Automatic annotation (TrEMBL):
InterPro entries: MFS (IPR011701), MFS_trans_sf (IPR036259). The keyword Transmembrane helix applies. It holds the Pfam family MFS_1. Keywords: Membrane, Transmembrane, Transmembrane helix, Transport. It comes from Xylaria flabelliformis. It is found in: Membrane. GO terms for molecular function: transmembrane transporter activity. This is Major facilitator superfamily (MFS) profile domain-containing protein.
Amino acid sequence: MDAKECVSKSDPEREVVISDTPVVESSFKQALEVSITTGLNTDHDNIDTIDPNAAKRLRWKIDLRMYPILFVIQIFSFLDRINIGNARIQGLTEELGLYGNRYNIVLFAYFIPYILLEVPSNIVIKKTRPCLMFSWGIVNMSMGFVKSFTQLVVLRTLLGVLESGVLPGIIYLTSMYYKRHDFQARMTIIFFGSVLAGAIGGLLAYAIAELDGHCNFRAWRWIFIIEGAATAAVSLVAVFLIVDWPSQCKFLSIQEKALLNRVLAEDGTAEARMDTLNKQACKLIFSDWKIWLGALIYFGIGVTAYSLSFFMPTILVEFGWKAREAQVQSIPIYAVASAFMFSVAWLSDRYRHRYGFVMLCCVLTTIGFLLQLCQESLSRDARYVSLFLLAMGGFTLPPLSISWLANNLSGHWKRAFGAGIQVALGGISGVIATNIFIDSEAPRYPTGYGTDLALNLLGGIAATALFAGMLLENHKRRAGDRDHRLNGPVEEVGNMGDYHPSFRFTL
């Protein structure tokens, strides 16, 4: 029995290790009480058994305490990022003169700081700080008062700075609470916030259009003002609800933390730790081919989601619907995509498999892009259906690819850097998406759809390479071909993360 995982029968003290912070109990009697309370079977013949009902109750408690507020934060984060697409067709373009590539530049400005600050934010972040949420809400609201293209670019850049740590911080925090094959469905809940933000954005824009001209403000200004103010207001509540790291959280008792530690250890990651950031750890992190392939997957498939988020209102208008009608027509697309996302998440966790579902989504988006590239011979209804295919595949792939990489990284620092690198490189797809839909190519957008298709295929190729590499590595570890790694110094063996030969990869 590993000393880090359990109570020694003869030791008067017990060390409960959560993440990288120990909690010490003062007596064996208290340790025994912890075991009983957390659902450990204290029968001498089977002292290590975890009561599945106790583990399930703990999981539900964490779910209900953690995800509602993170879900709301993700909704407002993504809504404030993409509402410019709704504002564009409600008068923004005409009033600020966003013709030619100016709209693309405004979108592009957001992603420069967003990409550069992803990794640093995840190194220093201790929680998703509500003060940042309040700040980006005020910035978003301020966009409703801009007078020029330059002012809008400056505010979009600042928005990228403030939102850069949100998603990697959420990924990092939540991955510390769950077993690997409980994570996909929960990651989908967070990304569902992004999809729901698109639907809510369309519905809100439809309603806010009624305010056009009120107080001498055009409808697009009201979109920014109202949605930014709502974000700032929610942040004042969020400060009391966001949870901390497992070792420091206050909503779990000592007994529940002990049970959580044992549940996570049972997931096969107890020996694959990386709690110290040193030269060896940095080498293992930055030379890990899984991180770079995972980032390439997210980069390739992320272009689709960003393209839809920023340009779907414009595309629907070009189908022949008026601005307010186009806002409403986007809602069924987001609804169907959401149902598909949760179905894939449930199946993926149930069967403990990722690759096949990644490829299914890639096939759907490929068909959707091919239909759009052949749109001249298609009816409006057929083109509308193609958007459903693009949304189903495009919005499901990001949480699927993120959870797949997170499943295959073990250790405190490995996950921190891995999530930051993946989301940072994925952010480059946002830069591309903002520049490939060119006004002069409307409504066919061959550059936009063609680039999206090519990068989608690149993501599928990277996923296949990741699958093959991990399949081969699992085979070598089962055969004992990696056991020589255990011959190094104890401090290195205990800090190698998923490089440890006992770790098995999720395919």
